[in-house]
Design a protein that fits this description.
The complex is a heterodimer of chains A (110) and B (116).
Chain A: E1 9-13, E2 18-23, E3 31-38, E4 45-50, E5 55-56, E6 61-64, E7 70-75, E8 84-92, E9 104-109
Parallel strand pairs in A: 1-9
Antiparallel strand pairs in A: 2-7, 3-4, 3-8, 5-6, 6-7, 8-9
Chain B: E1 5-7, E2 10-13, E3 19-24, E4 31-38, E5 42-50, E6 53-56, E7 65-71, E8 74-79, E9 88-95, E10 106-107, E11 111-115
Parallel strand pairs in B: 2-11
Antiparallel strand pairs in B: 1-3, 3-8, 4-5, 4-9, 5-6, 7-8, 9-10, 9-11
The chains are: A mainly beta (110), B mainly beta (116).
Chain lengths: 110, 116
């Protein structure tokens, strides 16, 4: 499994954009980059995933570096509900499971 | 869709007692996962099943832990005997198959276990 490095914590103000970085320099060519988040007292939930191209969905955008050794999850306008731990998880296309690292704890201030 | 359903949501038990955690996956999903979360160790995968068959149980901490999936709609995680260090949040999760990029895994709300 590719190792990831994420900041332990980040802070943002409400309605500001947030860029959550992730380094995954040992990622293999078949690994997709998945992001999950865990709201307080809840189970993790899917946010977004991608392989090479940048991806957008209703929750967030994912920007993947050209060499794929890093990626950034972008929340365009943070809300209080976005306060959570965000996990970046490289996952091979032929892997059924998710292996979580320590993630980034995002605090959002009103 | 009801999502992944876990029970009990909270349990406090005495050391040495047997604990059984239950999980109902999302209908139609053929993968089921059990995770444990503690402050010290974070989220750990304990075991997962595909079509009711255990595929990888390398994360099960020791013989006191066992998991079963007798049918596609039910799984149990049993701890016998329980110890204080088993206190944690236990998550059940499920997913389908077919997405080349990896199927989304859906988590339950967790079972909060305290062993005193």
């Amino acid at each position: 499994d590719a190792k990831t490095t994420q900041p332990n914590s980040m802070e943002s103000n409400e309605e500001e954009p947030v860029h959550l970085p992730c380094n995954h320099s040992t990622i293999s060519g078949t690994d997709y980059i998945h992001w999950y988040r865990q709201l307080p007292s809840q189970g993790p939930e899917y946010v977004i995933h991608g392989l090479t191209s940048n991806v957008n969905n209703r929750m967030a955008s994912l920007a993947i570096a050209e060499d794929r050794k890093s990626s950034t999850l972008i929340l365009h306008r943070a809300t209080l509900r976005d306060a959570a731990v965000y996990y970046c998880i490289p996952r091979s296309y032929n892997t059924d499971k998710l292996i979580f690292g320590t993630g980034t704890r995002l605090q959002v201030f009103p | 869709d009801a999502g992944v359903i876990q029970s009990p949501r909270h349990e406090v038990t005495e050391m040495g007692q047997e604990v059984t955690l239950r999980c109902k996956p999302i209908s139609g999903h053929d993968y089921l996962f059990w995770y444990r979360q503690t402050m010290m160790r974070g989220l750990e995968l304990l075991i997962y099943f595909n079509n009711n068959v255990p595929i990888d149980d390398s994360g099960m901490p020791e013989d006191r832990f066992s998991a079963k999936m007798p049918n596609a709609s039910f799984s149990t995680l049993k701890i016998q005997p329980s110890e204080p260090r088993d206190s944690a949040v236990y998550f059940c999760a499920s997913s389908g198959t077919g997405a080349f990029s990896g199927n989304t895994i859906y988590f339950g709300e967790g079972s909060w276990l305290t062993v005193v």
